Structure formats: structure tokens, C-alpha cells
Amino acid sequence: MIGVLVRRSTWDYLAAPSSKCQLIRLTATVSRRPWEEPSTQGVSSCGNVKLLSSISCKNSSSLAGVKKEQTRCGRLEYLDWMPSPFTNAGKTMSNYKKLSKFRLTSLVVITAMGGYAMAPAAFDISTFAMCALGTGLVSAAANSINQYHEVPFDSQMSRTKNRVLVTGQMTPLHSIGFAIASASTGLCLLYFGVNGLTAALGAGNLLLYTCVYTPMKRVSILNTWVGSIVGAIPPLMGWAGCAGTLDVGAWILAGLLYAWQFPHFNALSWNLRPDYSRAGYRMMAVTNPSLCRRTALRYTMAISGLSLLAPIFDVTNVWFALETMPLNLYFCYLAYEFHQKSDSGSSRKLFRFSLLHLPVLMLLFLVNKKNWYFTSSEQEETTIMDNKTISIHPPTSGLGSVLPVAVAAVPR
């Protein structure tokens, strides 16, 4: 009996990333009529099975049947790679997590929530949660768009060649859809759940990262300064989410985050120079190594200066300047060592300490915050208690006791 080719007779199987398998595409000519109920047994009993692209997989037991069919009635051919339409729910969530650069997004959320906690205003748990969730979604959208644009260049770097879009674990359409959904949801949460200023900062940062910083990475070393602005905006978002305004404390905090980006990223990029050069990125570490080291040293010194400004402008108490002094001085020492030695060892020390420096600095900023505020409910209870105290114990001296008598004495 001559079989007919059923439309849904092509199966694409993509093995797990850990197994490092290529795509398997199986096309079967099934010996049944197309209107009959589909049966999985039709593939195993078919007369013509074509295995188009396959390699062995050590960790995947699901390939046993495919190998069997190849031995019985198949022939091996090679085609170009194609993405798989079949996905596992857990695998999909893991891919979206990678697409959002979860660790980087978590750092963005932490800095934003640090700004919220340090603002001189009452803490509100619902606004705090909305601000955190909205900031995280906007950051995830920005990272997704960034990876979408940089697939050809990420494939040339050892650090990024295993990203989900480069390896084909997700399609570009998935990344764009995820970015649109995350950005729209995140901005709505920031606008309706927090305030307009926070939403505007989030939208501006999204555009700055995707439309300015990402393409500038291949044009000019100024991309590092633009990227530092992107990193300084999340604490402003948190501060605006809590206080509704941006005062001098917000700008000092943002300045600390802005300055911290340079020793952190310059030390990171120093050991990635071959990758950046191969991919065509214009980084200071590649085009001007001496400027890269000088910039890292200058901005560690700027962090020390900004830490001294915080108590001067009455944002923190004087203990903040004293407690951060040894932390900042050691940071400057590592940057100076990197400037002098310009080797991979000194750059790694500077980079690793930068990961410790930022959370400790923000924690000290929070602990030494000058003004602490109650929540709105606690303020209302305090006001009620004060009113009761005044009514029970009226003033016995001063203008409060004289004023009623004076008013009564006025002729009408």
C-alpha cells in the first residue's frame, strides 16, 4: 500500500543544553489515510523514515526510538539547524530567566529598592512591592532587547556564546514578545501602582539602554559613560517611588552608583579584551587600556568624595563618612594597584571587591540615614494620641489660655 505524506509528520527534537546535542528532524511517510486518527505507532511501523540531522546524545534517553528507526529504515542526511517548536514548560521558564539576565536584573531591583528604603518618606509595603516588580520587568525587557540585537556578536564571545538566542533555544520572536509584554506590564505597574515620575524614569532608562547604549557599544568608548547612567537610574526610581520627588540625597546616591560602574566594569572588561575585540565592541580596555585603568582609579576616588558629601548635605549622619572611609580607601588601593600593574590578577581583585563594596556601601547608607519616618498608619495613631493628650490636658499658660478671654472681651 502506498502511503501518503501527512502534514503533521515532521517532528523537531531539540535536546537539553547540558547534553549538547544538535537538532533532530524526523520526517515519516506513514501508511495510513490522512483522515484517520493520528497514531504514534505509525512512525515506528513506517516504511520510509528519513532522519535528516542527528548526532548521538549521551544524556538523553528519549533518542532511543529515533536511533532504532534510523537503524531499521532510515538514512542520514544533514540540513541546517532549525529551532524546535516543542518546548518543555520548565525549560521555557529557565530560558526566559536567562533571557532576562536574572542576576543582573536582581542587582537592578536591589539598587532600586535600596533607593526606596533610603528616601526620607514613609515606607508603604504595597508601593514598595509594585516598584520592585515593575523595575524588574522593565529591566528584563531591556536585557531581552539587548540580546536580540547582539546575537551575531554574542556568538563570537566565549562569555556569551551559550545565550539562549545564540544557541537557538529561543526564537527572536519569543524574545521580542517577551520584551513587549514585560515592558508594558512593568511600566503600567510603575505608573498606576507607584507614580508617574518613577514610570517616566523607567521608560527613559529602557530607551537609553536599548536605543543608545546597545548600538553605541560598537561605535565609541563613550558607551561606558552612557551605561553608567543606565546603572545610576534605578536608585532614582526607588527614591522617587517612595518620596515622589528627587532631592539632593537621591542625586548623591545615584552619583555613588554612577561612579561605582567604572571600576566594576573596567576591571571586568580587562580580562575580556580578546572577546570584545573579536566581536567588534569599542571598549576602553580594547582601544585605550591606559585610559581604562585611569578611569577606574578616578571614579573610586570620586566615591570617597561623594561619601563625604552625604553628611554635609544632611542626608546621613557623620558616622557614614567615618564607617565608609576604610572601605573606600581599600577600593582606591585596589584601583591604584590595577593602574600600576595592569595585569589580570589585579583586575580580578578589583572586580571581586567591587561586588562586595556596593552592598556594604548601600547598607551603611541605610543604617546611617538621617531622617526616619513612620508608616502612614503609625503616623495617624500618633496624631490621635497627641490630640487626646491635648484635650485631656489643655494648655494652662501662654497665648492658648489668654486668647479665649481676649476674644470674649471684644465688643460686638
TrEMBL record:
The chain crosses the membrane at residues 102-119, 189-209, 221-242, 248-268, 296-313, 350-367. GO terms for biological process: heme A biosynthetic process. Pfam families: UbiA. Keywords: Heme biosynthesis, Membrane, Mitochondrion, Transferase, Transit peptide, Transmembrane, Transmembrane helix. InterPro entries: Protohaem_IX_farnesylTrfase (IPR006369), UbiA_prenyltransferase (IPR000537), UbiA_prenylTrfase_CS (IPR030470), UbiA_sf (IPR044878). Its EC number is 2.5.1.141. Its main location: mitochondrion. It catalyses: heme b + (2E,6E)-farnesyl diphosphate + H2O = Fe(II)-heme o + diphosphate. It is a multi-pass membrane protein. GO terms for molecular function: protoheme IX farnesyltransferase activity. GO terms for cellular component: mitochondrial membrane. It is found in: Mitochondrion membrane. Belongs to the UbiA prenyltransferase family. This is Protoheme IX farnesyltransferase, mitochondrial. The gene is LOC115631495.
